[in-house]
Amino acid sequence: MPTLIPAPTRVEAAGNKPKLIDEYVGRVNSATESCSVAHMRSPGGWVEPGQSPDFDEFTVVLRGTLRVEHRDGAMDVRDGQAVITHRGEWVRYSTPTEEGAEYIAVCLPAFSMATVHRDEA
Questions:
Q1: 28-57 burial string, b = 16+ CB within 10 Å, else e?
Q2: What Cα–Cα distance (Å) separates residue 38 from each residue in 74, 98, 106?
Q3: What is Dmax (Cα atoms) for the chain?
Q4: CA distance 93 to 8
Q5: Bridge partners, 102 (sequence order)
Q6: What would the pLDDT profile of 67-95 be if each residue is shown by its tens digit?
Q7: What is the pTM assigned to this prediction?
Q8: Cβ(9)–Cβ(29) below 8 Å
Q9: Are the C-beta atoms of 59 and 66 separated by less than 8 Å?
Q10: Which residues contact 49 (CB under 8 A, 6 or more apart)?
Q11: In this predicted structure, what is the pLDDT of residue 115?
């Protein structure tokens, strides 16, 4: 039988400014370990710590610009574009423009604080 997800759960975000994360599918909202799906809204100027996660992340930008820094440089992902970051590679996400960004992130397996491996402050 299909499982209805009646509403997301708001989860705490890392970074220098408040960011909204609404998890629809994942370890918190649906006790799903195989995948997580979250709706993200980050303000302009938001930056999170770098990370080397043990999961692949598939991100679709709905509005604004999401900057993805990596060991070889950086890329800006804009409205209607997507990016895949691969498990084990170092990345850092930010929203460099004033308008911020709205995006959907899917992690395989599901996002976990134990497997994100954020840089130490």
A1: bbbebeebbbbebbbbeebbbebbebebeb
A2: 23, 22, 7
A3: 45
A4: 22
A5: 41, 63
A6: 999 999 999 999 999 999 999 999 999 99
A7: 0.95
A8: yes
A9: yes
A10: 14, 15, 92, 118, 119, 121
A11: 97
**Per-residue confidence band for 26, with pLDDT thresholds at 50, 70 and 90:** very high
- Total residues found in the chain within this entry: 121
Of 81, 47, 84, residue with least CA distance to 65: 81
Tokens of 113: 């604080």
- Residue 12 burial (C-beta neighbours within 10 Å; 0-12, 13-18, 19+): exposed
Whether the CB-CB separation of 86 and 56 falls below 8 Å is answered with yes
Instruction: Copy the structure tokens of residue 114.
Output: 């134990």
